[in-house]
Amino acid sequence: MEIALVIGLLIVAIVLFATEKFSVDVVTVGLLVILALTGILTPKEAFEGFSSDFMIILASIFVISGALSETGLLDKLGAQMIKRLKSETIFITYTMLVTATFSAFMNNTTVTALVTGPVVGICRKLGISPSKVLIPVAYSSILGGTCTLIGTSTNVAVSGYIAQAGMEPLAFFEIFWIGVILCITGIIFILLFWRKILPDYKETSFTEDYKIKQYLSEIIISENSNLIGQRAFKSDLSRWDVRIIKIIRGKDENIPNRRTTLEEGDILLIECPVDDLIKIKESPDLKVLADIIRHEEIQSDKINLIELLVTPGSRLADHSLTEIRFRQNYDVVVLGVHRFKTTVSQKIASLKFKIGDVLLVQGTEESIEILRQSGEFSIIGDFKVNMFNERKGILSAVIFLIAIIAASLQLVPLSIAFLTAALVTILVGAITVERAYEIMNWKLLILIGGMSAFGTAMENSGASTFLAENIIYLLGDLGIMYVLAGFVVLVILLTQPMSNAAAALVVLPVAIEAAELLGSDPRSFAIAIMLGASVSLITPFEPSCILVYGPGRYKFMDFIKTGVPLTLILLVIILLLVPVFWPL
């Protein structure tokens, strides 16, 4: 009965993770509650994963990465290195190498977010479609994470789990050489085939990209209009679901704020549905100057259009424009939103934003500079970097390096080394406590802690033994390598609907049990599964891929065409080399 319940819960979790009907942290906590109430897990077992040292390591990495980003050090290094290159092939090569190097020691999603903006700008300068470069950026950030223990959250989670299972945790550079081989293989594959397999989507105007041209219009406030003297944000126009984007008053152009009042003769650039535009046409208080505004008319010498990428740590993630008072705080207007699989351009004030969303924003140079310096967004195509606090940036890098050396030489435990480094970066002012809490990926931490406990539930219920015996029954006669291959393929498939770390933690208990039944080394199985979870590039559900999906104007099949052959090649390398480095 318990076996059926645990396997049933696993299937439900996979479906919920794939459909995203509920947040992953809510699903994870729900699983723990059910397992605890049914007695499969004790309260201590249910929450043990949240108090383990690998959770401290993950949280510390978020803080340290945030400090390096906040000081502008990574912006400056990445932008300066990438901007030196002119040749297309050399540019792509160098970009992938820089991205992979950063990603070996930082969260790959953060690295992708930092690199995407400058890369798009350089692509425009070189006349290359961003779609030719951004998939390589995402893939190199993912593969770079396979080189060290802290390269991905999956590595840290697997190391923590095998330690709980009685094995030695992974050493800091234990997977370095196989990670380098995987990373170089990925780079070579891209360089050989990027011209043929990567799409070439030419950039179009903003209004075409975001489908906003059909409901941008220009109106003038007539003499004796009731709108005269009304506040822009609370005028009668609001009953028609009209948003005022820009006010032209004489020779001046302004973006309205909460204090702006409307005057006779004001020309308003508005955004509204077509049906409401018809109502405005019929109003005696207003005169429609143009039903359609050209792309050039939205911009001027004083007011510009930019694209913002919502990055990890942004206040907009999981919040709406209204909730964080976006317009009032940043003094810019959001005209449209591009999201994975779709473009949203109406009723966006209440839209809950996700990491990877691209916002089409209009504002003055001053307001855009405020956005740039906030560190919460990546400005696509932007060559400028955040103000570089040289002393704090270099100090943060030195602190991080000392922590890595101390941990790799086993002078202090890894968790203590990184926790100390995170604490020192806060004490020296490289990042504030408030910002550290903001950039923390709490959903990921809850997911990993909860799925670690789910692995214990599989062991307690006998589900891991049941599944392991059946897999051995199906593949055991073919040999240990076929059983190992079956588990690696399984984890690759599971990473499509689930996060990489969650997929690895689901498969690990079964794989370790199978290895023990076969008399093989369970550590070798664990490392192969960990690497398999990290090289799953088939679909764009990995956070790094989602971040480039919008800026690259990609389609779902673009990742399939590139990711499937590359994942198969990397799968073969893992199966060939893991037994060499960690004999079965």
TrEMBL record:
SUPFAM superfamilies: TrkA C-terminal domain-like (SSF116726). The keyword Nucleotide-binding does not apply. Gene3D superfamilies: Regulator of K+ conductance, C-terminal domain. The chain crosses the membrane at residues 28-47, 54-74, 94-121, 133-163, 175-194, 393-410, 416-433, 440-458, 470-494, 501-519, 525-550, 562-582. Residues 204-286, 293-377 form the RCK C-terminal domain. It is found in: Membrane. InterPro entries: Cit_transptr-like_dom, DASS-Related_Transporters, RCK_C, RCK_C_sf. Keywords: Membrane, Repeat, Transmembrane, Transmembrane helix, Transport. This is SLC13 family permease.
